[in-house]
Design goal:
The protein is α/β, with parallel strands linked by helices and about 270 residues long. The protein contains nine helices and twelve strands. The chain has a six-stranded mixed sheet, with helices on both faces. A four-stranded antiparallel sheet has the order 4-3-6-7, covered by helices on one side. The longest helix is centred in the last third of the chain and has 16 residues. It starts with a strand and ends with a helix.
Length: about 270
Amino acid sequence: MSTDDPTTGETVTDETPTGTTPLLQVGGLEKTFGGNHVLRGVDFSVTSGSVTVLIGPSGSGKTTVLRCLNALEIPEAGVVRIDDVSVDFATRPPARRLVSLRTQSAMVFQAHNLFPHMSVLQNVMEGPVTVQKRPVEEVRAQAVALLDRVGLADKAGQHPFELSGGQQQRVGIARALAMRPRLLLFDEPTSALDPELVGEVLGVMKDLAGEGWTMVVVTHEIRFAQQVSDQVLFMDHGVILERGDPQAVLTDPSHDRTRTFLKRILEPI
C-alpha cells in the first residue's frame, strides 16, 4: 500500500514488519471533521506481539488513528482488520460489526477516564461484568490479580481521587487488560503526568511489551520508542511520512520533516 505526502508529493510505501500475518491491518483510512481533513489514506500493519509507536506533531492525526481502530471515531473510508474481524468503513457497517471490532482492542486514555464514584477494583471490573457479561467472582479474581500486576493491590478499595496521576494511569492499564483484548492502544498515556510519575507508567508498559502484548502507542517519549518499539511511524498532516525500525527513524530519518520534528522535541529548553 502507498500514500502521497501532501507536502512534497512523494509516495510513501507501506512495509509490513517482519513476522507472520499481521494481527492488525489498516488500509486507506480517511477521516474529516467538518472541513478539516484529518486522515488522508493511512495504511500500516502490526504483527502479533510487536509494539508500534506513532509520533508526530499535535494535530497530525495520531489520536484519530487510534480512535478509528476501535470505532470510537467512524472514518468515511478505509478498512481495519484486527485478527479475524474486518470492517470496511466505506460500506457503512452495521452496529454489530463495530461492536465486534471494539472487542478486539482496549484503549488506555491520556486523561485516565476512570469512574470517580467507583473504587479502583470496581473500575477494573466494570467492563468485563457490564459489557462482556462475565461472572462477577471470576472477574473479581482477575481484577485483583491485575492490580497486583501493576503494583496497586493495596489500592483496590480506594477511589481515583485518592491516587496520584501515575497510579490512576496504572489502574487504566489494568482496566484495559481486564477486557482480554488482542490489541492494546495507548493514547499519550504519560502526557498528563508530572515528570517524576512518567517512569512508573512506562515501566508497566515495558513489562507488557516484554510479555508479548501487541501494542500501538501514541507518545512523545522518544526513549521509550527507542527501547521498546519494533516499528515507529511518523505522522504529519494526516499521512504517515516515514516508517521503519526505531534505530532508522529516530536516529537517521530520511524525511526532512521527521528530522525537523525530532530536533525540536529533543533539543533542551
